[in-house]
Design brief:
The structure is a single chain. The chain is α+β, with helices and mostly antiparallel strands. It has 3 helices and 3 strands; from the N terminus they run αβββαα. The chain has a 3-stranded antiparallel sheet with strand order 1-2-3. The protein is elongated and about 40 Å long.
Length: about 80
């Protein structure tokens, strides 16, 4: 794993942990995809991914933007479970 992948993943994990309750897993896999998984207590888990991670980094992709995207999609995911 490259250093920037590890640093990005760790920083994003920290930012998400401040705002979201649950087990949070962040990793860049061998396909160059940033994967974020949120494990919930009710077994209804959430997963979000960012393909082409390396090119996104080169074009200014930040942990703040990634955290915003994940949080927005997670909020939609949770609300959809209660309001149909």
């Amino acid at each position: 794993m490259l250093d920037y992948e590890y640093l990005f993943s760790t920083n994003l994990h920290t930012k998400l942990k401040e705002r979201i309750q649950g087990g949070i897993f962040v990793k860049v896999n061998w396909d160059d995809v940033l994967v974020v998984k949120i494990k919930r207590h009710d077994e209804n888990n959430f997963e979000y991914s960012f393909p082409n991670f390396s090119s996104k980094i080169l074009n200014g992709f930040t942990t703040d933007y990634a955290a915003y995207e994940v949080e927005s999609e997670y909020r939609r995911f949770v609300l959809k479970q209660f309001f149909r």
